[in-house]
Amino acid sequence: MSQHDMDIANQAGAGFRADVNLALQALVGNSSGSSEPAVAFPYQFWADTNAGVLKMRNAANNAWIKIGLLGVANFGLILPGTIVFHAKNTAPAGFLKMNAGAVSRATYADLFAEIGTTFGSGDGSTTFNLPEGRAEFFRGWDDGRGVDSGRVFGSAQAFAMQDHAHLLQKAFGSGALGGVLYSENAGTVVNNSTFNGNMANGAIATETRPRNIALLACIKY
């Protein structure tokens, strides 16, 4: 770790060489350190080892801009609030599991700035809730299209099956259908009774679902 003011003073040979070497170390090490360089320049890089973030000085030379995470592939360059599915049961660096948990507004300030209390206000002052992604399918927000009308952004939706009817063209006596008689008009019951749709060889479950694979839903902070 090395930082330098990039001002090489007039001095004797050995001192001059040492000063130049320190300046070069600061350059190749991106001015790494736990605190910002005492002297900064526009577009200068600073590897903030305290926060674990690579930063760059802005053009006005009055603030640092976050570039990405140190020690993380691609600097973790994904915007806060971005959702990804991870092929591992633990969240990668820079991400949190989407488990509806309450997390710190200060620690995860960038994420809080993006999603706020959309998915829950936590304790109402110091925490906020993450979205719930466990065992859920995701659906694009309707946003005025009219397919999923009236849907609030970020809201959960219970399972449902669209209203429909089936056509049975035979009359059955007593037996498997319990004496149910149907007309040829779909959904018209002549003799009120109960029809059990279970099939011995069918894919029966407690929910209606498509084929799927279980992955870990994560959100960038």
What does this structure look like?
- It is a single chain.
- By secondary structure, this protein is an alpha+beta fold.
- The strands form four sheets. The protein has a three-stranded antiparallel sheet, with no helix packed on it.
- The protein folds into two domains: 13-72, no CATH class; 78-163 and 213-221, no CATH class.
- Helices cover 10% and strands 17% of the residues.
- A hairpin with a 6-residue loop joins strand 8 (181-182) and strand 9.
- The protein contains two helices and ten strands.
What are the SSEs and their pairings?
Elements lengths: L12 H16 L16 E4 L4 E5 L6 E6 L13 E4 L8 E3 L4 E3 L4 H7 L11 E3 L51 E2 L6 E3 L24 E5 L1
Question: What labels would you give this structure?
Answer:
10 strands, three-stranded antiparallel β-sheet, single chain, Phage_tail_collar_dom_sf, 2 helices, alpha+beta, 2 domains, 221 residues
Kindly report the average pLDDT value. 86
Number of strands: 10
Q: Any idea what the shape is? A: elongated
Low-confidence stretches: 173-178
Brief account:
Residues 81-137 form the Phage tail collar domain. By secondary structure, the chain is α+β, with helices and mostly antiparallel strands.
